[in-house]
Amino acid sequence: xxxxxxxGQQRSADRRRRELLEAADRVVLxxxxxxxxxxxxxxxxITKPILYRHFGDKGGLYAAxxxxxxxxxxxxxxxxxxxxxxxxxxxxxxxxxxxAAIEARPQVxxxxxxxxxxxxGEHGFDVGKHSAPLLRRMGEELAQVIGDRLDLGPxxxxxxxxxxxxxxxxxHAAGDWWLGERPCxxxxxxxxxxxxxxxxxxxxxxxxxxxxx
Amino acid sequence: xxxxxxxGQQRSADRRRRELLEAADRVVLxxxxxxxxxxxxxxxxITKPILYRHFGDKGGLYAAxxxxxxxxxxxxxxxxxxxxxxxxxxxxxxxxxxxAAIEARPQVxxxxxxxxxxxxGEHGFDVGKHSAPLLRRMGEELAQVIGDRLDLGPxxxxxxxxxxxxxxxxxHAAGDWWLGERPCxxxxxxxxxxxxxxxxxxxxxxxxxxxxx
DNA sequence: ACTCTCGAGTTACCGCTAGTAACACACGTT
DNA sequence: AACGTGTGTTACTAGCGGTAACTCGAGAGT
Lengths: 213, 213
Prior knowledge:
Chains A, B: This is TetR family transcriptional regulator. Two copies of one chain form a homodimer. By secondary structure, chain A is an all-alpha fold. Chain A has a domain at about 65-200: Tetracycline Repressor, domain 2 (Orthogonal Bundle), CATH 1.10.357. Helix content of chain A is about 70%, strand content about 0%. Chain A is built from ten helices and two strands. The first copy, chain A, has helices at about 15-30, 35-45, 50-55, 60-80, 85-105, 105-115, 130-150, 155-180, 185-195, 200-205, and strands spanning about 150, 205. In chain A, helix 3 crosses helix 4 (about 60-80). The radius of gyration of chain A is 21 Å and the shape is elongated. Chains A and B meet through helix 4, helix 5, helix 7, strand 1 and helix 8 of A and helix 4, helix 5, helix 7, strand 1 and helix 8 of B. Strand 2 of chain A pairs antiparallel with strand 1 (about 150) of chain B, so a sheet runs across the interface. Chain B binds a DNA duplex through helix 3.
């Protein structure tokens, strides 16, 4: 890869950094979570130590990479959450936005959430330490919105935090399962999850022949 | 390591396998997700190749280790789910059982769910590929129970699966967050999550001064 | 014009990992 | 006595994250 087409070196370090991140992105999209520092360096047309100078260590590069996607996703989610519509519609829009995102770039989100579950090899990114932040950030963000807008009485702030993390976890796990098995359309999944959040679990009747769940 | 204190070799391979698993368990409890094959072999008083003869590869050992804990946890959850009580009480009991389990052995469950998020070092178990099965199994199991007992009308089976995975994800994410921050008691967390499942999100009133969430 | 500095980039390495090949010893069987 | 067979070892490969030490080339100073 002859990336230095022009010997222009007035490129700031920031610009370089962005180039490296884009190269990393490409590799992650191609190789999935198996992307190695060597591969990323090669894709960027340079060698490892430069990567380390820019990002400190693998975690630093990962964090930078994750921040981009996380920020983008959070922006989308915020937009869905702020849409002028009924509460139920907003919830569905938010769920749908998240699911659409992981559907559009499954490898990226698999990379962000699931450490090295690619097809071959075993030495992948150790994402575990950093996958939490993504879910945590989403959880905290959602908690903020819930706490800001809903009147939950005393202790509502804490309740909102629990719910924020819980709902994000629900969304994540269901999305993950759905992405793997594709048992239904996205719309159906959204509807089902919203129904769950809307208390249909509590409202459902027992099946004939025994005590209910 | 003179492990052959007695030349007793009538020990069946199964017995040996269980010993190895127990050693692995000990190491995981001590070192967390950083446990390496070398460390486990050393703890068992043997060397690596034997581990590989018994478990094939790291994934095999991990799978065997995970199966033990997963089975045990699932048994507990089933018991809580089958207790003779109201639906809400059962849900709370199940949540509490899960949370009590991860509270009692945080390192084990961190190991099962989070790949290599230990304090130091970076080369840990690549659990990512295997953490899904645990959550998947719990999700499917819960889906089974929900589908068996609740009358959800047409498409109820699929709805139950979505809910199973969603609820498990909620439980997992909330538990994970709670274990890290301990923002409240276990009972409070259980109650908050059950409230969420019981539709309090939909029922809550908007806060004064703007449209609701 | 010559040197000096300095930063970008390289090669070559370390220590670690998962995983394997090849060898060594003790046992019950024929 | 000779022979597999199971159990264990040592010594190795290949690849990873990460780093030390070197090289090279562009500007600044005199």
